[in-house]
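Feature request, filed as a ticket because there's no other form

It would be nice if the structure record came with a short human-readable summary line next to the tokens. Right now we just get the raw output. Example of a typical job, pasted below so the devs can see what we mean:
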Amino acid sequence: MTEISVIIPAYNATNTIIHCIESIAKCNVANYEVIVIDDVSTDDTYKKVTEFIERGNSFVRLYKNEINLGPSLSRRNGIKFSNGRLLAFVDADDWIEENALKELYEYADGVDMVLFNAVEHLTGTDNKKRIYPVDDSEETFTYKDYKNLVMNSEIIVCSKLHKLSFIKEND
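Raw output as currently delivered:
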């Protein structure tokens, strides 16, 4: 069984998509898949991912939207193709630190979601960063009681590991 599905919505990501996928591959997680949803890119994003798959990277599956839908609806499309018990979203211009998914996976047993810190590296700003912090108290909470925390814009979509069944039940 696939344990983790990582969904990447991609639009004109020729320069970043392969680095993104390779960072996921370095996370040392068994039984994972990467689902790339090309959002009708006008560059070579689709071609680059296709070539990457053809080089023996069968953990990647590539789909293409019929019309440009934006990242949110592209993620929703990716959920339809997901086989994993757990689900993560990564943007095409992002990367994941080595072993990050493995560490998050260890916290995911028996919970619906794992929240974690994310760092945004701001381009063109002399390496400035924006940090999206999560309280590291290892507190357990319910979605119903803390919906604002989960849906808060300060905790970006790419800083959560979800149980797929939880996403489908609360859609």
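Something like this underneath would help us a lot:
The radius of gyration is 16 Å.
Residues 29 and 123 are 30 Å apart (CA to CA).
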